[in-house]
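[Help] Beginner question about ligand-bound structures

Sorry if this is basic. My supervisor gave me a protein sequence and a SMILES string for S-adenosylmethionine and asked me to "get the holo structure". I don't really know what that means in practice or what format the answer should be in. Inputs are pasted below exactly as I got them.
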Amino acid sequence: MTAADDSDRLRWNARHAERASFSAHRLAERALSMPLPNGPVLDLACGTSGSALLAAAHGRHVTAVDVSDMALGLLADEARRRGLGDLVTPVHADLTEWRPSSSHALVLCTGYWDRALFGPAAEAVLPGGVLAWAAFTLEARRERPHLPAEWCLSEGEPATLLPRGFAVLDMPDFGATRHLLARRL
Ligand SMILES: C[S@@+](CC[C@H](N)C(=O)[O-])C[C@H]1O[C@@H](n2cnc3c(N)ncnc32)[C@H](O)[C@@H]1O
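Answer (accepted):
No worries, everyone starts somewhere. Holo just means with the ligand present. The predicted complex, written as structure tokens, is below.
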């Protein structure tokens, strides 16, 4: 990893060390309760990821990607503790560069936004599979003016950025966070 990545890694390691949660994101709970084709799950910017653990508890193989080796270590330990270690593959990578190279029944990303990642992530969804994404909207900058605009969804995003061949299932806002569920046709 480059020095710039390393500062992200260290910053996020400190945050995960301070408060690790193994609760699944509610968008992941919704997505995993929907009909999905056979196949693995990809959790992008997973953190300590209760969502990956939930997917594994559903019998899915999960690839969990994050820049924080601390978060991935905690996740791997918890997966082993729950007897799910064989189903969860942690990948230590910077998502400004890493791209999926295989297809998934569910591609999940909660609490992270990068426009350049969205298209490749959508292309990694199997036919009939689901893309689930939760991120801040620009509204979040009212309360957190320091939040860079490029980390926030603009009007209509991310649905407007979907490649052809997706149907939006829904895209509600919860305060300053938007949840997208879309199915690949
Ligand atoms: C707000 S947390 C969300 C964690 C988890 N998805 C959730 O919903 O609880 C953002 C996550 O993105 C990860 N992250 C931040 N920048 C990243 C990058 N460039 N590449 C990979 N992961 C990154 C952080 O380590 C952190 O785990």
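A couple of things worth pointing out: Strands lie at 41-44, 62-66, 88-92, 104-110, 125-136, 166-170, 173-174, 177-184. The domain at 3-14+24-184 is CATH 3.40.50.150 (Rossmann fold). Feel free to follow up in the thread.
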